[in-house]
Prior knowledge:
alpha+beta; about 50% helix; about 10% strand; TPR repeat; endoplasmic reticulum; glycoprotein; dioxygenase
Amino acid sequence: MALHSERSSVYVAFHFVVIALLNLTSVTPGRGSSHALSLLQPYDFLYYSGVRSYFSEEWVKAAELLEKAIITKESLFRVRRQCHDDCVAAGRDAFNRLDSEGGSLWDLWTLDWIQQKAECLRFCVGGSVTPAGQLPVSTDIEYEFSTRNPYNYLQVTYYKLEKLQKAASAAHTYFVANPSHLEMRNNIEKYRRMEGVTEEAFQDSELENEKHWVLYDSAVQCEASSDWVQAAEKWKACVNNTLRQTDECRVQCEVAPQRLPEDRGVNSNDGVFEKAAALSLSVLSCQQSCVTQVATRPGRISSQEDFLPTQLEHLHIAQFKAGDISGAVQTLRSLLLFYPSDKDSLDNLQLYYETLGGDTESQGTQPAQEIVRYFSRALEEKRLLYFGMENLDFSFTDPDLWTPEDVVPESLRINWRAEQEKINDKIKEGEQKEEVDDSGFFSGGPVLQVGVTITMDDQVMNGTNRVVLDGVMTEKECDRILQLATAAASAGDGYRGRRSPHTPHETFEGLTVLRAAKLAHDGMVNQSDARLLHELGERVRELLHSYFRSPSGLFTSFTHLVCRSAVAGGQEGRLDLSHPVHVDNCLLEPETNQCWREPPAFTHRDLSAILYLNDNFNGGDLFFTNRDAKTITARVKPSCGRLVGFSSGPVNPHGVTALTRGRRCALALWFTKEKIYRDMEREEAEAMWAAGGQNVVKKDKEEPDGGATPARNARNQAPTERSRGRGRVTGGKDEL
Length: 736
């Protein structure tokens, strides 16, 4: 159907203003009181009531109301979605008559269609939600729920009610969106040590709305392990979930009550058309902003720009490497809708055509229909919004980098180009920015142990806070620890029993200090060897504490003896790494040069070390890179008694080259400046030895920080870096 342009603008304005006005009115009166009690109440009222009960220390009531507020909000969104779907056909007859009616009747048929659809929505929503529950909530309430503050209150409430499993779950859910919150992080560690709290408690209760991020991370992991079939499946599911989540957001913009034009500063002298246009543009702007909302991880302020095109780029590459050339052509054509002149994409398309040979049917594959619909709608919305900016003084921030220049009116292009140049300059500045280590460590301090020499320092290793020390162990000590590893290391230790956590071409075995102490107590390994394993950790700690001139105390956070062995007969043509490039205390995004200090990274780690035990193997070199995970800045070949120490943060991305023959063993150690994160198992082993070898179990009843007050919800604690790309490389325990 094609409407004349002047009719189209009025139709759009009427459509949104009538729906919004009718959504703001009360539901049809005359319903029974029993029915009213079953309707959804205002979730902001339930939340405020729960908070009041919380501060009155009415814990049972507080838990009930806070839980109900969360559930009611979710139910309200589902009702709106269902009503939107149920009312799609409302007024269709009147709508279909628009093209056939001449003269002035078209506006009446437009109103007929809008009124029928509005009546359907009003009746549908009113059948499930109270009149008060349909009103818009304040921006403060929106902020409270977007930062997951209800879970902040719930974790203390559950603790007071001795429901520790629920308390841990609430704490974890809050922490996912507030990863810089030290107090909540400490609470989670305390919950982990409490009896009755299992690992299942530490699940994100809001995960249902973040499935696209779970699939995104899973797809990246499949890429890292070169599992291209699985990667293609995950990326495709990620694209579909991103589109679904975007659509859910757009529906809420349309069905949820909107503020009237007067509330948006529209001139009170404006007529119905001006006010209707302002409201319709506000709805369109809301729907455009869904791109940013969906592309923002929980706890982040900035979105990942080009989120959908980035997924399409990953998808077509994964499909090509998985052998699905036709699928790769379709996905690449979909990507070219956004960037039609991108040289790399056009070159890839030509490569795919050549690979297909004479398969002309596959070569003619068109872009995916769902992407075409997404692109076409977004483009038309942008045209309307830029028209509003130029002629109606409307303010709009375009969420996309791919917007074609010809969509922007000529009068706005100068400012638009200036903004684009600022973005490009910021990208270049970020790429050229010199790396600064804010860890508080300063290399170059004295080496206190006799016989230990500095082999490589910052200058030789082209980095910051890096060092290689030789002579830390004798050959005899290396042999003793190697024998201990052979006798006691267990397969997959540190990786939940997975023998090959990083690559199928190698197997992993590990041993902790506490397990060595217990085995020594049972007479299964030499007692002196177990004590040597413990003593080496202290030896390394003292060396690095001095060399890196730590201004505060340095505590051992984790010690792990780990050996990796090359799988015989499985090394030919190998292209992967023994351990992918990663950073020890943050999540590395090589494409954006960002490193996010949040779970599942071990954010408490401050200093890392690897003490090597042997060199009779091929490959297995440690290497350092820039944040791009590609540019190698230093390489270290293992040998007995060689210690590599470095700060654990984003200035030191590192990985391990493929081990192609033999067995490589090393002692991996991490240190922290926070005493709360010291290695409790290490202390338990020390207590065993102090008690003459008897097992000692310490159980402390710890209360989460904050007592009856929830962890403070600081608005500015979330990372502010802007993410512009894809890819994250993470590891398990990160043993090197």
